[in-house]
Design brief:
mainly alpha, 2 domains, 2 strands, two-stranded parallel ribbon
């Protein structure tokens, strides 16, 4: 068991609660963002050790398909997006998305995430088209 500082306050209590297997409230989950990384990682390892063979670590193979980099929000922190007329802007076709899904399947991927650049870009990517893309790609 990892020993946490006695003066850890709410964060340490929340980590102890999580390690003990108790459900955390939304407020407690937000407190985890304030936890020192070493303590958070230690608590996560304790939970993992309590649920599986301590000599066994598992992982999941997954992928991320960005089927468009077109965005009209223009956040300052994103280096990935392109404005609709900008060079390098792309939106993958259903066939291209399917090819990426096939590549993920070949390496044993079990999960795939896809993300629209922003909920506010309806002008750039139609919500129905988004659902059609997901439906075709996941078949």
């Amino acid at each position: 068991m990892l020993i946490r500082p006695a003066n850890g306050g709410k964060v340490s209590k929340t980590l102890d609660r999580a390690v003990a297997g108790h459900r955390l409230s939304s407020e407690q989950i937000l407190q985890l963002y304030e936890a020192p990384l070493r303590e958070l990682a230690g608590a996560a390892n304790e939970v993992r050790m309590s649920h599986s063979d301590p000599k066994l670590a598992t992982y999941a193979i997954g992928g991320n398909i960005d089927y468009t980099n077109v965005c009209v929000v223009a956040c300052r922190f994103c280096a990935f997006y392109r404005a609709p007329p900008q060079e390098g802007a792309f939106t993958l076709s259903f066939d291209e998305i399917g090819q990426q899904m096939d590549a993920l399947r070949r390496i044993g991927a079990r999960d795939c995430l896809s993300c629209r650049r922003s909920a506010d870009q309806r002008q750039a990517f139609n919500p129905q088209s988004h659902m059609d893309t997901r439906g075709r790609a996941c078949r």
